[in-house]
Write a structure and sequence with these properties.
7-stranded mixed β-sheet, alpha/beta, Metallo-beta-lactamase, Chain A, binds fe (ii) ion, single chain, 20 strands
Length: 369
């Protein structure tokens, strides 16, 4: 922590170590509501700080013995806030790069399947709530929905003495730039994808119901179209389901992105059929989605829910097909920023010449609650 600044890695480390820190977000209200750091405090002081108001932070009720980290969108106005707080005798730091940089902060949580050595590690981009998975058994591993630098997954694999054998996505993502191709190149793992996926790069085709074995684990491919036509879920050892953007712990996938008119209705119907297939799995199946709504805390708790619990908690799951289509289409949230550009890059399998942070800022919006 130099020059009253703190890097993403340093703050990530403090939170991982459960060190006390008071995070003060000074962005405008709307930006705060859109996405934020878990357990942060908010004071809309952006305009006032920019206008040179020196008293705007006078009523901040922060503990004196805890460092303050100020946060804005890109790490500029937060420096003004830090200056004011330092003058008041606080130990304050500005988060370098602001939320735009925090987009790549991450943490992890683990879950071991009962009576096996199959370990599921959920790797979470904490700001956006993107969840990727590295699953290992008997010295081998697979990675699903990589959304961070390949080193993140390679380091986790190394820590566990795993060799990454296969990498795959649950679908062509529209809200972040997938890193699966990069990870395949860096790890020399086989890049797999459902056989009907419309992408412009080569991959090893997998089919509905196919089983892929690694260590003592078995991953079964379940084609679950609806959110997108190629959407695929992966069932691990008949126990845990990587449900992609088809089923979340608080909602279902949205069928409207990259489609309009009649096609949206067809996709909603297809999503209903896919959900019925998922609901026919064992009720104690653990659902592990590709996203969560809101900021992920540094609590080490894996984001999961049993299928039985979801059946009672998500009202859309108890509707008949026609009602499901009607209600889900009525609840569609605003479209995510830049989703067509991001989906096109993911289809191409390359983001050369593009700075991911410029496209990926903002909350995830793949769900209907
Ligand atoms: Fe998605």
């Amino acid at each position: 922590m130099e020059n009253s600044k703190i890097s993403i890695q340093e703050l990530q480390e403090l939170l991982n170590e459960k060190q006390p820190v008071f995070i003060l977000d000074i962005r405008p209200q709307q930006q705060w509501e859109e996405w934020r750091i878990a357990d942060s405090f908010h004071k809309d002081a952006y305009t006032e700080l920019n206008n040179g108001d020196k008293n705007i932070l006078d009523d901040i009720n922060a503990p004196r013995n805890v460092p303050i980290v100020t946060v804005c969108a890109a790490g500029r106005v937060s420096q003004i806030a830090t200056g004011l707080l330092n003058e008041k005798g606080y130990e304050a730091y500005s988060l370098e790069g602001g939320m735009k940089a925090w987009n790549y902060a991450w943490n992890k949580a683990e879950y071991t399947l009962e009576h096996t050595d199959v370990k599921i590690i959920q790797v979470r981009r904490v700001a956006k709530g993107c969840l990727s998975y590295i699953i290992g058994s008997g010295g081998e591993a697979i990675v699903v929905d990589a959304s961070l630098d390949p080193e993140v997954y390679l380091d986790i694999a190394k820590e566990h003495n795993w060799t990454i054998r296969y990498v795959m996505d649950t679908h062509i993502h529209a809200d972040y730039i997938a890193r699966t191709r990069e990870l395949a190149a860096a790890s020399r793992a086989k890049h797999m994808l459902i056989n009907n996926a419309e992408v412009e790069y080569p991959y090893t085709s997998i089919e509905n119901h196919q089983a892929i074995c690694f260590g003592d684990a078995e991953l079964r491919v379940l084609h679950t179209p609806g959110h997108t036509w190629e959407s695929t879920s992966y069932l691990i050892n008949d126990t845990a389901l990587l449900s992609g953007d088809t089923l979340f712990i608080d909602g279902v996938g949205r069928p409207d992105l990259k489609a309009d008119g009649e096609e949206v209705v067809r996709k909603a119907g297809s999503l209903f059929d896919s959900l019925q297939r998922i609901l026919s799995l064992q009720p104690d199946t653990i659902v592990l989605p590709a996203h969560t709504a809101g900021a992920v805390p540094f609590d080490g708790k894996i984001i999961k829910q049993s299928l039985a619990a979801l059946m009672t908690e998500i009202d859309l799951l108890s509707l008949e097909k026609e009602a499901f289509i009607e209600v889900s289409l009525h609840r569609i949230p605003p479209t995510p920023p830049n989703y067509l550009t991001i989906a096109a890059l993911n289809k191409k399998g390359s983001y050369e010449g593009v700075i991911p942070a410029d496209l990926e800022a903002g909350a995830n919006r793949c769900a209907i609650g």
